[in-house]
Each structure stands twice: as C-alpha cells, then as structure tokens.
Amino acid sequence: MAATKNRRILVIDDTPSIHQDFRKLLSPSARPHDALEADEQALFGTKAASQTREPLYEVDSALQGREGLDMVIRALRLKRPYALIFTDMRMPPGWDGVDTIQRILEVTSRVELCICSAYSDYSWHDVIRRLVRPSLRLLRKPFETRELLSLTAELTDKWQRLNGDDAATNAGGR
Q: What is the DSSP letter of 93?
C-alpha cells in the first residue's frame, strides 16, 4: 500500500504576515479566482482550472526558533513529522535561523530545510559550513509565488523519496 504523501510544512518566522503569506499560497481554503473560473466555465463551456490546482499543504507556524523546535519534537512524538521547514534568519530576541536549524538537526535529520530571509548576519558559505548540510536551500524575501510553489513541491517530493513508507516509524534520524 502506498504511503500518504507528507505535505506538512513548518514556517518559523517572527513576522506574522509572513505566516499569512505562506498559508495563503500553500494552503488556500478558497481561491479568489474560483468564482471567475466558474463564470468562465458557464460562459465558454471550458473546464474549470481549479480541477488542476497545485497541491495543498498543511502549514504550521512558529514565531521563534524555540517554539519551532518544540513543534518538531511534538510532531515526531505523534509520528507526524514535518517534511519541510522554512526558517527566517533574524528572529530577535530568540535564536537566529542557524541556531534554530542546528537544534532541529540534533533532533532529526529527516526534514528538508529552507532558509527564507531577506537578510543574514552570515555569508551563505558560513551557513553551509556551520550546518554541514549541503542540501540546505535559500528562498529570498520577498519571494515570488511561482518560486515558493516550485520549491515546496520539489522539497516535499524529495522528502517523500528519501523517507517514504517508514517515515512515521523512523522519524528520528536518517
């Protein structure tokens, strides 16, 4: 039996509007253009584009690194690990993005990670060296919708390929 695809995403950022942006783009409850699509279908007899929507994701939010780590630990205990974590670099007064990622990696390496930030106190080379994680990705703010959707699909698919059926039972390490 095929495993259910893990579409769990955690956004760790100290700016509440960023969480709203991620949620609006990755887990929309209703798209504003759905009414337009219905009207086009009625007028022109075309197939509604909403039938071929991009995938929906389950998006959770944490405002600080410590809160994000607690959520990762809780998700692992519940055998519902996150496939992907987006984290900001600057989150005063708490841990920065590098500290947050280091602590998450102490708990699990079975997660795809993406830094989503406009600023960093580190060079990209220093971040990679400190985290010893060559697959770490970067999404610059402000991000483009298409880039976010593409990166999210790519990284959740990668998580699925690497973790597949045994993800829930072996959520701790790789």
A: T
